[in-house]
Fold these 2 entries.
Entry 1:
Amino acid sequence: MRNLPSGTVTFLFTDVKGSTRLLHELGEGYAEVLAGHRRALRESFERYGGTEVDTQGDAFFIAFAKASEALSAAVAGRSALEGSPIRVRMGLHTGEPLVTEDGYVGIDVHRAARIAAAGHGGQILLSQSTRDLVGAESLRDLGEHRLKDLTAPERIYQLGDADFPPLKSLNATNLPVASNPLVGRERELADLQALLRNSVRVVTLTGPGGSGKTRLALQVAAELVDEFSGGVFFVALAGVGHPERVQATIAGTIGVRDPADLRDREALLVLDNFEHLLEAAPSVGELLAGAPNTKILATSRAPLRLEGEREYPLDPLPSDEAVELLTQRGRAVRPGFEPDDATREICSRLDGLPLALELAASRLRSLSSAALLQRLEQRLPLLTGGRRDAPERQRTLRATIEWSYELLSEGLKQVFARLAVFAGTFSLDAAETVTGATLDDLDALVEASLMKPIGADRFLMLATIREFATGALGENADLDRRHAEHYRRVAESTNLSADGEGGMPDYELAFAELDNFRKALTWAVETRNAAVGLQTVIALEQLWVTRDPFEGRRWLEALMERGENLPPELRARSLLTHGGLVFIVGEFERGTQLYEDSLAEYRSLGDERGAAAVLNRMIYAAIARQDFPEARALGSESLEVHRRFGSTQGEAVALGSLAEVEWQTGNRELAVELAGRSAELAATAGFRWWRVAMLSMLSEWSLTSERRAEGDRLGREALGLAHRIGDRMHGVYLLALLAWSAAEAGQLKRAGFLWGAVEAEEQRGAIGQWESERDAFAARVLAFADADFEEKRDLGSRSTAAEAVDYALGSVD
């Protein structure tokens, strides 16, 4: 990445006026003229210290550290083109943009581009901020103009007194001018404009309070001003108390005695905050019937339910846009504010809701982002004190949610409060079982924008809204118990117990319900309901093993401390799971002791099958201490029991464990045969985590034996499966294995990317047993590092897990 100016930067955009016409007029000579134009401008820009950020066709984007140098460069460039058939328009704007690895980010870039686009060939335009730095000499004030994509008007100045046609800015309407530019929402802007440009006559923008519906609607309307000859009108309805006043309010806003006078006008009406006036929707339908060229863009927390209406649900801001919004608003109260990790976490905690972010930004006047984050445990009390000119319902986050809550029936208020028991998303079945809610109840809450549907049959209540609902619910021990019991049953239905057989593991369901599992386990710890909690943890053993064995261990230890009177069977199984998770994170001695305690419990119960499951785990304890005769004896005993009981999964584990014993003792052909049979049985039993383990082991053995093609094939198959089930531990191990394979083959760019991806995954959190193997792999791979390796290593270190897997499974560079 080149060294871009930072801090206060002046942007210069240029564009050739009438390039298509020139191409037709000059024919083949156009290319030479265009090249001469580029040379002349580049020479002028470089002379005054400009940095070329981008060039596309006949346009330049240049950055300068000083506004005066930017203006001098523009003048020099225009002079250099005198006598050329090419006439260039130029726009300058000064701001403090964010500088990222990909270049400049922020509204200042868009503002500079729009100022240039408003001009004409030979014209140099400046924003107010640039004019303030270079002075008023030789500048002509062209007044305030509303520019495309920017709701706030910009005062524009022209260099020199030459006469040009009027600037190409948007027409004026009664649209209120926003105090701040719109951040993000490019896709939504495009979608809504497309709907209103087509045959759709009513578009209702729905979403929870504080999601930015009004701000987006204003921007959409500003973009469409030129396309409605009869005008674009903003009709504020929040202060209208009765449905019968809606038509009169519309008429008064657009300056007619009766809405029927719209019948011959091509107009766009923005009806803002309709949710408390839904009884007036039929009168709006009548208005449209009598005015065939009029269209409506409504904002509401619920649809109007008019014929032909298109509802457009507005989601909260995605992470990057939320950070940009908080950063911009933070700089308004604390100049020089820079985003950090705490900023991103604040945005996550506040669900990306624009109103919540605006309110949080006001606190940055006196708090650092880290201090603000600490105080966000309870969001609603902190997020007060918004702008004094904001509507009362938008001055606190609580008020904007309460506005929607008070529109519910009493029965629906109770359902809404009970649904606060869920964490994250939840299913229709869970809502019915735990809270007694019906599908009609959920539909009504979705329509009120207090919940949102996710996928086919799941729902989400934003954390900010859930906090309000929790306050309305109060303490409800019975509801919490029902929630924990339900999610114990859900955990058991995932077939992720390490000894569960008879169904395919459902990792997708487990990942979807993870927040609710955690809430249920927290309840079990806090209320000392250890049995329910332990049953849930055990039912999810494969999830903990593949995703985060440290988390599974923490839950087990907290629950075992509170399990004074556990049934012996549950205690034995808990000790086995605990030992497995402790062993996986590398604490072999403690894991072995827990296995022995579990084995003693099972044998005292006369549970042969349970004892055999422990023996399978103890094989690895024996291998760890190099006691191979003991490991072989344990494996043989376990294998006999599992075969006798018909346990395919248990047999797979026993064979795989014995395979490791044979490899370690030099019986390599037998080891490969046993591991292959183990992988096949794991596939039959649906024990996908164990199949990943066996394929990984076979891959490494093949590479060690210099069968690289076979090792690569097995490694890729294992990595694809590991990624699908969320197995981070084997995933990072396999990325390292494939990096080593690529390095050995001289594919150093591929090796570098894959090793960078390993490092990226390490930054996302602890990865169990990988920690004990990392140094050995690093020594193997980094011995080959060269410039190509390091270049791709940097790229890999910035990849997501999905990108890394796609790369690893793709073709070789």
Entry 2:
Amino acid sequence: MHFRKANRIMSTDGIEETDSLCETDELGDAELCEEVVYAQEFLPTYQSIREGETVTKTQVVEFNDKPESLFFNDGIRRIDFILVYEDEDKKEFEKRNMYQRRKRRREYFEASLMKMGLELEATPSVVNDKLMFVKVHLPWDVLCTYAEVLHIKLPIRPNDITPRPSMWRFFTCITKHFYPDEKLIQKEVEYFTAPFEKNRQDCFYINDKDLFFTPAMRSRMACYILSKAQYEIRGNINKFGITKLLNTGVYKAAYPLHDGKFNVKSKEEAYPSERYLLYNEWANPKNFYKMQPLDLIRKYYGEKVGIYFAWLGFYTMMLAVAAVVGLGCFIYGLKSQETSTWSKEVCDPNIGGKIVMCPQCDLCKYWILNSTCETSQKLSIFDNFGTLVFAVFMSIWVTLFLEFWKRYQAELEYEWDTVEFLEQEEPPRPEYEARCIYERKNPVTGITEKVPFTFCGRCVRISIGIGTVCFWIFLILASIVAIIVYRLAVFITFSYQLRNNNLKNLEPIKEYVTPQMATSVTASLISFVVIMILNILYERVAIWITNFELPRTRTDYENSLTMKMFLFQFVNYYSSCFYIAFVKGKIVGYPGKPVKLLGEYRSEECDPGGCLIELTTQLAIIMGGKAIWNNIQEVLLPWAKNWLFRRCSSSVTEKVIPRWEQDYQLQPISQLGLFYEYLEMVIQFGFVTLFVASFPLAPVLALINNLFEIRVDAWKFTTQSRRIVPQKAQDIGAWQPILQGIAILAVATNAMIIAFTSDMIPRLVYYWSFSVFPYSDNTEHTMQGYINSSLSVFNISDSPFDLTDIAMSAPSNLTTCRYRDFRYPPGHPWQYEHNIQYWHVLGAKLAFIIVVEHIVYLTKFILSYVIPDVPYAVKERIKREKYLTHVILHETSLKLVTRRLKPLIDDKISHDATNFNKEEIEMKATLTPIEENN
């Protein structure tokens, strides 16, 4: 037997004790040694089992052949949570020793749960005789206790506030077709609510104790208790929490139950299956055009899941507006393609067919301008005035989206009772509490509290985290540089192959594929593959860093992880787009003095029409590839895993499998499941807003993807996954400031794309200044001659390189070639220096950026100011509800006190009356007859 050291543990006085040991067998199998430990004085539970006490074992019963039952075998106690483990007694003898510790921990853990008031019942598996399912039930007293601990808001009286009629009520005959069937999903009764208090139960609207707490609330409280229950004790040191037991294999799974099959209607009309309703009215693809049943989603899965789908639905609805405008812009581009003068000049055999372009690399050949005819025609679809209008529109659209979302979110906060959900109500994570060994005075309360590390220790952890994040960001940038080198190297090959007249087999594609296009497509595909690989690696690194930083609450943990993952994803997904948009073709020099990367490769040049078409290609490939890959992950993988699991269990028919075992066969959803859903959509939001000036169809693709995404996520939640543990949430958390940051950055990126990536500004400068006198003989403003004006002349004899081999492919009388830039021609006193047109264009670009940014930012500020974050009606209803809730609680408490004091008052009055009568009789007995007559 071998031993290895585990994490250090601390005694109650903060002194480090001897390290615990964990065992490993001869084959090297070992348990995870990272322990969640808790000193007794810090233990957040009560009624803990003392060392040496008798451990009560869970009662084992047989399956009662009721496959859809949600209750214990007695049919009365509801199942609030399920724990699954593998019975060690049925393992092979030679492996039994390594499972004994797990068995002891499990028995101790279950005894702790029963000591805390929970009721347990174990049932053997029907499919696998090695599995055991432990059913957990929370009695009424335990529910009341933890409802108060978790500050759960519960009804005190039906809400009698009449909501204001909606402006859409006049269109009910039309809008009702876009909402779920009200006969199936009935509107929930609204109540005034207040945080539950166990000693004031009479103040709350309790008609039926079995229905007062919803299944989602019961599951949430059960999960909280499981995270606090201890599983091992060593002296004054307690180890606790279901998470550690799951990680070490003590339990194989822990989950709440679905309320039935998704495709079978409930037999009880009064209590319909919510899972069945969600599948038919939400997850079914036939309802793709309908609004989501958000109240039912929130009731079944909790506020955190509900707020995600509310945000996703609202984002998709707003995308519909952007998609319509973007599609109109695209159609305008198709129409303007026929009238694009500069595109026609490129394709004209008498203009573009006679212009010989200089080689774009040291080994490249001379080429004719009209070989890029197809690319120029495609470019004219996206590089036009419609794109400018659409870019400005999208800058306004993103502001309206964020402002209206805040208003909609405020309405949901009111309706879902999360208005006063504060951080103080969220309990610390067990991993945080387990390491609280230092004392600190709370600056707010002035009370001494325990923290896991000192100020210096916190700074060290944060510094290590920042350093690790920076290292991985530099790694991404290194991969981008490698792809750039690939582009430079492979461009030479494509230039030779596609412009070699001797290769007849490539003749059919030469007309449509240019060296620039071939390089862009292959580099984009490679970039996409690299992005996917780095995503997998960095995900684990980000989780490790966040665990190392040890955030206090679950919200803090997710916010910290969110910022790290988004920063990485931002660099990973967008860096190649930023390179094409703002770096490529900007610093290339001229044929006589080219700028070289690494002293060997000439900087990439753009097509004569600019790099906009390459940016469009990059966006289309990444957005399309990302959508396909995500759908494969979200649809095919869960379905395939569940199918294989069912195939392995095909010996037992599904009719005799209990509900808890059917759910065990489904895929688990991790606590970070929604995090990845948010991340996917926020990255898409960046593509839709940051680079929309180059790809007006991005909102259309995003809209189509999201319509599928909503139903795919709904299908996954209702049919392929176990029921997620409900969690409370007030808003979308750290994603809100991230979206606002993207919205601000989008204004600058789109203005710079139009100014520096597209050719719109140079064409406007030519049209208004250089197409007429004194720079031209034309008397009217025109776009004719723009191509000739935008291409400078280079004398081949001025090249410092040996062009003998290259010159052999050129016409015999060729003395000059053209290149994309605004420079003086050879023979000019300032030959090859930037000419006056260059400075006009540069000034116009800078002026355009400044003017557009100021106009758009001013408009955004005005919209943000005039549109309140919380609707006035919602503010009134919140104030009204607070007032009425206060009055109701006060009146109820007063009645309760009066009712309790009434017997005492009656006794007091009766006692006083009795004493008065006695005194009167005694006084009469002492009076003489004369005194009585008087």
